[in-house]
Design brief:
heterodimer, A: about 250 residues, mainly alpha, Fumarate Reductase Cytochrome B subunit, 14 helices, B: about 500 residues, 3-stranded parallel sheet, about 5% strand
């Protein structure tokens, strides 16, 4: 019964996650960037932009300039999260890829460092006056959500084991539409439920920073306005004289 | 209030200040009257249905500007920007933290444009758009100088300037405009420049300058106006025509053109490089003001366009002119609008060119020579202006906007000292008067906003005896001239890079 509920929940959550995210990415890519606004000094060509974006995404370059504590905690959390996610590929592959098998122990440590990073970020949110000032309840709850996911996962690893073979059977069953029962384990229920919640809120929350960073004009534009005329479709209409500038405000 | 404005105390160690909620809630610039508003096509007074029209405008901007859409969605409240704004450092008002300033708008965006905000407003910090919120927008979005310092540190590049511009555009669209910025834009359209200096007065001023320079140097340095067929059109902020110390840099440009034998002209139509359309985030005004440059260039048949010392003007010229007027290079062959101007201009040179690029190029070619001793009375430091530093470039490589002005100073003077790196180049602090805030009704804010720059200036004054801070922005010059005496500095400490060039340049026979 509970297995069926989780089956339905995961299909729903995955569907909303994928559709919601694609929709958001669609909106971001369709919305024009009418002016050249890279934060300078900026790369002057596309290759440079790729490098800048890579440094930003992999190493959080700007955050490093801003605040070493936030950078340290944030980077620790995100890097650990990536390792943890990769480690979980073993539940989705049969046979397990060699490199996934190789990183298994690191993935476990990453679970711990992820929790540490999150705790540091939360402490900052709770105890630094100006960060507390800007925090909304959802900011706190999101950290709690991630911590609960990490903690429930680690509990299953170190304290109350679950039948991971059956868990893998359940997940592969989801993937190949050959549904299998889910082991009865409260820790597992909590873990999976929270992951589903995370998938559901991803496209409607600040987690959109993940796709958003790639669309940020101040980071993804090349600094070449004198060399190449950059103009959005709606702005080009002004040039051809089809619409008087003052009418634009009333358009739509 | 203005009579009692004093400078805040320097921080002993530059620690992050404690919050003082509401510290600046009464610092509100004068609201534009209906005459000023209507001249720009905005409603004269706050319209009755401001609520609906503001939201409609916000929706429209979200569809037109990817920056706004992404920036409102992506913020995770990490706080990287929270201690980076000079207005926050100087005022301690938490709503002057970049993220909190953005949240004034973001909270309304969330309420009306996102699912969680519609159903669980409290949870995600979403707010109804009330009259109080609208007033708060007006107050705090006119306490942002759009300097982009926060965007340097944001892991997603969120630029509060973009959010401020959008908020100001929404306010204008419902009839809630700022007197200072909108009155100036009206003057540009009516008279041709921000200061409202009409053509005949301009001609008079320039003739006076020719006499002054002749008297001082014995050489006929010309200040041509509206000369058809000149090689170079110089577009410069109108403050250069009569404000101190701006005018000394104008003399510097003229001497550089004279010494290099470059034929040049000013234009009475385009007698203003500044473009306050950017400050209010209104694309139509931004474009309309920029079009004057295009028209002047086409009328005068010039081959090159050079821009004088002005920060935001250089951002608009460098980053936006090609988009707005087709002044640069690289337009589609079937882009008739851009082709008209691009065919006329000489593309062996970058279009537009900053006067510092021009001068440095001439120095490198050996076309200029200097008596550096003429600047020996100065121990010089350089204040990077925000829009030049973070919204533009000079030369062929990223960061040329930092090197070229410094190279010029070092070529014309012997004593040069840097301020700490965490307050210069891309991390430079705004002077405190940019982005449409250079008005006396915001003097308290301007004084407080200058605190971080004044702190490090004091440091190099104490350690190295610095007595001259060079800069290449008309607003920086005007702001510092006004507020530096309040911090106990001599107002003559501030000046332009071309003022130093002017002091040392050899005219006539080299």
């Amino acid at each position: 019964m509970i297995g069926t509920l989780f089956t339905i929940l995961f299909y729903l959550a995955t569907l909303l996650f994928v559709v919601g995210l694609l929709y958001r990415i669609g909106v971001y890519s369709r919305t024009p960037a009418p002016l050249k606004i890279p934060t300078t000094p900026a790369p002057i060509n596309t290759g440079g932009v790729v490098l800048r974006m890579t440094r930003e995404v992999l190493f959080f370059e700007s955050l490093f300039k801003a605040n070493l504590w936030t950078w340290g905690m944030g980077w620790l959390f995100h890097a650990s999260l990536v390792l943890v996610l990769l480690r979980h590929l073993r539940y989705f592959t049969e046979p397990v890829w060699a490199w996934v098998a190789f990183i298994q122990p690191f993935g476990v440590y990453a679970g711990i460092t992820m929790l540490l990073g999150l705790a540091g970020l939360w402490a900052r949110r709770l105890f630094v006056e100006r960060i507390r000032y800007i925090s909304t309840p959802s900011d706190h709850l999101l950290l709690v959500l991630f911590m609960a996911i990490a903690a429930s996962g680690l509990l299953m690893k170190f304290v109350a084991h679950t039948d991971v073979i059956s868990v893998k059977g359940f997940i592969l069953g989801l993937m190949y539409f050959n549904w299998q029962p889910l082991p009865a384990h409260p820790g597992l229920y909590v873990h999976l439920l929270l992951v589903a919640v995370l998938l559901l809120i991803f496209p409607i929350s600040k987690l959109l920073h993940a796709p958003g960073v790639f669309f940020s004009p101040s980071r993804n534009q090349a600094d070449n306005p004198r060399e190449k005329r950059h103009i959005a479709a709606w702005a080009k209409q002004l040039d051809s004289g089809q619409i008087e500038p003052n009418d634009m405000g009333n358009a739509k | 209030m203005s009579a009692t404005i004093t400078a805040p105390a320097y921080r002993i160690i530059p620690i992050i200040p404690a919050l003082k909620p509401g510290a600046m809630e009464d610092s509100k610039s004068f609201v534009a009257n209906d005459k000023i508003q209507e001249a720009l096509g905005f409603p004269g007074q706050l319209v009755d249905d401001w609520h609906d029209r503001a939201l409609a405008r916000m929706g429209e901007l979200l569809g037109k500007y990817r920056s706004l859409k992404v920036f409102l969605d992506a913020c995770v409240h990490c706080g990287a920007c929270s201690d980076k704004c000079h207005y926050f450092i100087g005022t301690q008002d938490p709503k002057n933290m970049p993220v909190a300033r953005q949240d004034l708008l973001r909270s309304v965006y969330r309420r009306y444009f996102t699912l969680p905000g519609k159903f669980f407003p409290k949870l995600v910090g979403a707010r109804d758009l009330t009259r109080e919120v609208l007033d708060e927008w007006y107050t705090y979005f006119y306490q942002c100088s759009e300097c982009r310092r926060c965007s340097v540190f944001c892991p997603y590049g969120i630029d509060t300037a973009e959010v401020t511009m959008a908020a100001r555009e929404i306010l204008d669209s419902v009839g809630y405009g700022q007197k200072y910025s909108n009155e100036i834009i009206g003057k540009v359209h009516r008279v041709g420049n921000n200061l409202g200096l009409p053509g005949p007065a301009l001609l008079d001023t320039l003739e006076g300058l020719e006499e002054d320079v002749k008297e001082a140097t014995g050489i006929d340095v010309r200040f041509p106006l509206d000369v058809k067929g000149a090689e170079v059109l110089l577009v410069t902020p109108s403050a250069d025509f009569f404000a101190e110390p701006h005018i000394d840099s104008l003399i510097g440009y003229a001497k550089v053109f004279h010494a290099t034998g470059t034929s040049w002209t000013l234009s009475s139509k385009a007698s203003e490089a500044g473009n306050f359309g950017m400050f209010i985030g209104n694309y139509d005004q931004l474009r309309k003001i920029a079009m004057r440059i295009r028209e002047a260039a086409l009328e005068l048949g010039v081959k090159r366009i050079v821009v004088g010392e002005c920060g935001h003007a250089w951002r608009v010229a460098y980053s936006f002119w090609n988009t707005l007027t087709g002044v640069g290079d690289g337009a589609d062959a079937n882009d008739k609008f851009a082709m008209m101007l691009q065919k006329q201009l000489d593309h062996r040179y970058k279009q537009p060119l900053h006067i510092c690029e021009f001068t440095w190029d001439m120095i490198e070619q050996g076309a200029l020579s200097f008596d550096k001793e003429a600047n020996d009375k100065h121990i010089i430091t350089f204040h990077d202006s925000c829009n030049v530093a973070r919204g533009s470039r000079m030369g062929d490589y990223p960061g040329g906007q930092f090197e070229i002005p410094r190279n010029i100073i070092k070529a014309v003077a012997n004593n040069y000292v840097e301020m700490p790196l965490s307050t210069t180049r891309e991390q430079t602090f705004c002077c405190g008067g940019g982005g449409g805030l250079l008005t006396d009704d915001l003097l308290d804010l301007r004084v407080k906003g200058a605190l971080p720059r004044m702190e490090v200036l004091q440091q190099v004054v104490d350690e190295h005896g610095v007595n001259f801070m060079a800069t290449i922005c008309a607003i920086c010059k005007a702001q510092f001239t006004k507020i530096m005496p309040i911090y106990g500095f001599d107002r003559r400490m501030i000046g332009g890079v071309h003022q130093l060039v002017s002091n040392a340049i050899r005219l006539g026979n080299k």
